[in-house]
Specification:
heterodimer; A: about 140 residues; mainly beta; 8 strands; about 0% helix; B: about 1400 residues; alpha+beta; six-stranded mixed β-barrel; 47 helices; 48 strands; globular
Amino acid sequence: MVDFLFEDIFTLTKLDPDGKKFDKVSRIEARSEQFDMYMQLDVNTEIYPLHPGDKFTMVLAPTLSLDGTPDSGYFAPGGRKSLADKFEYVMHGKLFKISEEGSGPNVKVEIYVSFGGLLMLLKGDPSNAANFELDQRLFLLMRKV
Amino acid sequence: MARVDSNADAIRFTKEPFVEEVGPRKIKSMQFRTFSGSEICKSAAVQVYNSSYYDSTRNPVEHGLLDSRMGPASKFGTCATCHGNFTDCPGHYGYLKLALPVFHVGYFGTIIDILKCICKSCARILLPDKERKDYLRKFRNPKVEVLQKNAYVKKIIKRCSPSSSSRCIEYGICGYKNGMVKKAGTVLAIAHDRSKIVGGSLDECRSAAFNSKHSKGSIQIVQVFNPVRVLTLFRRMLDEDCELLNIRDRPEKLIVTDIAVPPVVIRPSVPSNDGLSNEDNLTTKLSQIVICNAKIRESMQGVAPPSNCLNHWDTLQVEVAQYINSEVRGVPAYMQKDSKPMRGFVQRLKGKQGRFRGNLSGKRVEFTGRTVISPDPNLKITEVAIPILMAQVLTYPERITRYNVEKLRQCVRNGKNKYPGANFVLLPDGNKIMLSFGDRKRVADELKEGYVVERHLEDGDIVLFNRQPSLHRMSIMSHRARVMPWRTLRFNESVCNPYNADFDGDEMNLHVPQTEEARTEALMLMGVQNNLCTPKNGEILVASTQDFLTSSFLITRKDTFYDRAAFSLMCSYMGDSAEHIDLPTPALIKPVELWTGKQLFSVLIRPSANMRVYLNLTVMEKNYSKVGETMCPKDGFVYFRNSELISGQLGKATLGNGNKDGLFSVLLRDYNAHAAAACMNRLAKLSARWIGNHGFSIGIDDVQPGDGLNQQKSQSIEAGYRDCDDLICLYNKGQLSLQPGCNAAQTLESKITGVLNNVREITAKVCMEELHWRNSPLIMSQCGSKGSPINISQMIACVGQQSVGGRRAPNGFIDRSLPHFPRNSKTPAAKGFVANSFYTGLSATEFFFHTMGGREGLVDTAVKTAETGYMSRRLMKALEDLSVHYDGTVRNASGGIVQLLYGDDGMDPAQMEGKGGIPLNLHRLYMKIKATCPATSSSTYLSPSEIERIIDERLSKHDMTPEGGCSAAFKKLLLDFLHERVAALRITRRTLDLDEDSIGDNDCDVLEIVSANVSGITSRQLQVFLETCISRYHLKRIDGGAAIGAIGAQSIGEPGTQMTLKTFHFAGVASMNITLGVPRIKEIINAAKKISTPIITATLACDSDVKSARIVKGCIEKTVLGEVAKSIKITLTSRQASVKVTLDMDRIEALQMKINAYTVAQSILQHPKTKLKQQHVVVITPHKLKVLPPQADKNSLQFELHTLKTILPMVIVKGIKTVERAVINKEKGKYNLLVEGTNLLAVMGVPGVDGSRTKSNHVMEVEQTLGIEAARQCIIDEIQYTMGSHGMSIDIRHMMLLADVMTYKGEVLGITRVGIAKMKDSVLMLASFEKTAEHLFNACVSGREDQIEGVSECIIMGIPMQIGTGILKVLQRVDQPQEFNYAPDPIIS
């Protein structure tokens, strides 16, 4: 079984907080229920439309294979069964930055991932960031609830 | 005149001994001498006295000007001296004996100077014995330089000239009274004026004359010195006295007695069809001289009346003068010919087309081509496409080896007209076979190894490519040839920048190096790959432009997605389908497989996993919103991590030229030139092909404003107009609150300008916001490929204010700009505000104003090119021979040290990575190391204290010490950076509630992991970082031999051409202008004594208080008595008449000036015009004084009083005379004073001014006040400031070098003809610069010896110069190896 790096249900709070800049891509702001994580994510809304108020499950996984074999880095498409089958929207990207924000008890960790230019910012308690490493390749899987 | 230096042989042999040939000889030095008449005769082959050229049989006349003993006159004749034919004979001199001597024009000034210094009776120098010996000792000092000698001579001349008081110099020995020597009225005549001599016979004469009738006219006793008299005087001069006047040879050689007739080859006779011939100017002039000479001889021999003799002598004088310098002044009218001016020797030498600049310093070359250029993105950046037609003419001599014999055989068979062919075959015996006719097949078959075939150019040959104006070294670079059809030279657009080329019809030149050595050197030193960066500041110059930027910008947009087919196709665009490409995992896997455009860029940079290029960089693009770094909503933050494009839309800042942190710069620095070049090639191909399919064009609909825009525009324009009307209204009422240092009109102008600029900005902003993102002009301006937001808004919204000379449109009519407006109208429209856009069209008046602005731009560019061109030339001449030597010093050609360590750290400006000329960009390097050296499970993160320990250990090693070649500045830079990182780690750990200094044992601690991920560093990373920094720093040392002077000159000269007409600039305060741009650079470089806007920036001792600043200002600004006096009245009492001055003490106190009657009295006494004495100014009370007229003459008393009354208000009672005004300036919360005017010394001395922190922008004044080092710093600062205010960054090392060259002689020397003459010793170099003839003549008089070591001299002599690769001198000891005797020693010997 795959170890997810992160899994939670998010509620979309805002679409395009800074105004719509791109035709096909929108930036969503969302907040998770379980870990109270804050997320910004660029989503290709042309093929996967989202609206404020939508609830979705988001999973970050290191590989798509069901048995947990690590991702090779090469893309080999094929009809094999994979984790993606259960989800509606899957992206692949790379973790490029981890930074801290605030101080004391309110300290938050920010995790930045780029999915080929579509960016994700995940902000929350440091305890949730233990599984993440720099330069990690990971998959983002989404499914509306 | 010139003679090759050779060792004077000590022993004379009866028979010339056999001397072995020592190999090629080299001209080491050159000596300038004067030639005497007998020497001329000796070296000549024939005497010339016949003025005719040819006899009736068309043969040269014996002893005529074309005598065949001086060389063959035509192609068919032979030389009678050496029997060579037209091509072989070098030519031989003839001589022409003058009946009477004449002055030499070139030496005329010297002759007068000598006459000034010698006694006209006994020919001794007019110096007392002691002084003479003193000077002699000075001249004989071996250390004395040419410059000093000339200064002594000048002093002696001054000393010997009759001073104004005595007007006569009496020389002790013979007692003759010498008068003034000066040039007589007519051409080339010398007068000796003894009329002012007092005493002696002259006085008697005068007194006699006084009694006679003609007493009115003063007696003029003026002798005219003719050449014969001067000659006899000179002959009697002692050698010792010559030495004192710096004359190397006998002075009589300065007077022409015989003329050397030059060989026929240098004055060719061209036969014309009608049996006559066209003779050279020199020949005709010589014939005139011969004729004139004959006439004189006749009259001297008594054949002709002797009265004509003097006239003829004058004529001969003029003719000989014109023969040497046809532009000689003062030629009598009857001798001036209206026909075209002839060319004398001086004219042949001087000027741009003259021998020195036109033939010796620059020569015509073969194997060159020139044609129109056009772009071809499919070529590599190192290539140039050469048309086949051109390749068939330009050849390369390839030597046949067994490897290329077959190829060359085919070439020979193809011959001249079939590509790839060959034009000639050179045989080892020196014969040349032409391949245009003859049996080519046979020649091809007979080719042997060692033959040389001049084959056509082929792909891969090395050529030099150049575009004029060649302003910097990147204007000529070496490319590899690609022979292609059609008729243009083509190259990759990425290389447009260094050449400054575009394709609107530009032509470029091509040269083909003809030897392997030349090719290698060209490839290594001038190759495009090795010149990606400019040495001006280390920025990249060869980079993507125009379409490449546009397409990259569009491809990397956040919402470009490609499916598998499209993505694969685009991947194949990048190369020639020969490279292996690994397809990355798509960014979107579900619901559809989609790749983003950014992934395409990741592929472009690292196509396959085998390629080990890990690019790491961050760039802030133009559209970066300044918040959130990578999360920027406009996607303006470019981040590459390990060759993956994480975020950001690529534009000019990343891909374009002129940056140091862009993609190609980083590739070049972190990897190599090849990586950068290959990436540029891929980008060029991809973008050209992609944009061809995608399409990108511009049309009228792109510049159509929408309704919203129109509305907002008219609103803002209306608001602006209203504001302006209000301001004008206020101005008319006189209620305008004045700006500091301005009057009402200036305030109004500056305010209106502000309002109108604001209007344009607002409309521009609205316009940019309203446009759709697909708008082509918008895309182009955003990505930086072409155009600015201003250009767009001018097209769509509003053209804006037109300015002429930095102001609004001037009044061309009485009180108005155009007759369409009412008089004195100051409304925006009447003063050149264009409210329309180019789309809507301009109204008639607007159009007119627009042309006014446009014309100014055109005129400015036209004027500027000439000005900067001359500036560059002067800079180049002054700096050309400076180079870095292997000990790190910068020296000139004669070995004089200009800098002890180049740029204070010995770094190469071309390789500086950081901003402001620092060697490394540590932030980027740190990021790269952290990304490329990922922490593995085995590596451990370091605690802050451990990091510090490692740093200290590493930085104390030898290669981080000054002895090890590391500057203190770099060490500090590195240390500061690392401490900053450590501090950041500490902060992170503190915020995460971890122990600051030691890492806990518990590895699994979540917070530990987080803190490590956030800002931790492993020992491996730290080690790699330190090693990379240090080793890279040491590699950036400048190479020995680098021609750093020439590079510096180009680096300062080239930006000059780009300076726009922004001539003025406000120095913090409105209305305080300072000159900028080319005029300012010129002032600095010329070391001008008087500059147009001298400004002293005075730091105040108490800089936080306005009041104290005002007090100091009051002390600096001049206050005249009229301003502080309550009244200045004439009072007449019965006894005395005086002018009474009452001071306005209230006003004085209000202004906080310390003035009272006593100080005023002092000031009045110091005033130059009053001529008052102490007793004339009487202080009555501390605020009252009276001034008595100096001459109590009753007749003039009234006048005196009134003059006093008019003068007194002008008396400066306080402040500095030379200061125009002082303005208080607030800068970063601190006040300082900007003083407009000169006299730094006085400003520094004003109480309240911190003298040690007071600066002036006047270089010469700084030198006088603070000394040479301060002047040097001032030059550096001023050039940097001027360049900086035009947005140009130039490495400070270049400016340091320039400042050092200007100051290293101990005084500030301008880069002008006077300054350069003082810097350089070489006559040839100076002659090739300016005033060619003067320098040569003076050199001959003083017998200068020129070492051939500078750049100019070496070029003139055709010798490799001692700069760059020429600095190498390999000495090899060729001792005979000792012969070993391997046999056992013979026992019996």
